[in-house]
């Protein structure tokens, strides 16, 4: 996650700090939010995070392994634990038989997201959202979609997954996610995503595509 947070842009819009084994990486507008990705022993990390937030501002939300974030929320004055969720990643390109393909643009994507996934972080035109893939119907209508968004040179990122309600249960999301995962692994070497920890159906699909799960969390000041 630290490598993903760097976005291949360290020293420009992305900044990093370290103290011993503790690391903090501040990435603006990463998956919709200003994120402060953190890692390391809490005794070194807590004062480092306090120092970094004083420098970059409290719009940056600490993000990392769940236990680390819970400990930070107890140690850093004014910090509150916000939410726990899942990070999943893979270095394997799944073998998929699919008709999914990259779209030439994003026509129809907003409409499908509004219908099927209005809470999506990835939308056409948002910073870092690069391209969309889809499985389509006989008339070319979008049935299931996913985005290449906020990908870093060494870690691709899958987001914006949505399937039209009328065609759910047909394996279309698995096809599209499998296609995008394979494409991103081939290009970047690894693909990651974030998932609601209570979304058992989505986690099951991603596991079948080769992803492994870890508990992560965010906090805010």
From TrEMBL:
Organism: Kribbella orskensis
Gene3D superfamilies given in the database record: 3.40.630.30
Residues in the signal sequence: none
Residues in N-acetyltransferase domain copies: 67-221
Protein name, UniProt field: FR47-like protein
Pfam families to which the protein is assigned, alphabetical: FR47
InterPro entries assigned to the protein according to its UniProt record, in alphabetical order: Acyl_CoA_acyltransferase, GCN5-like_dom, GNAT_dom
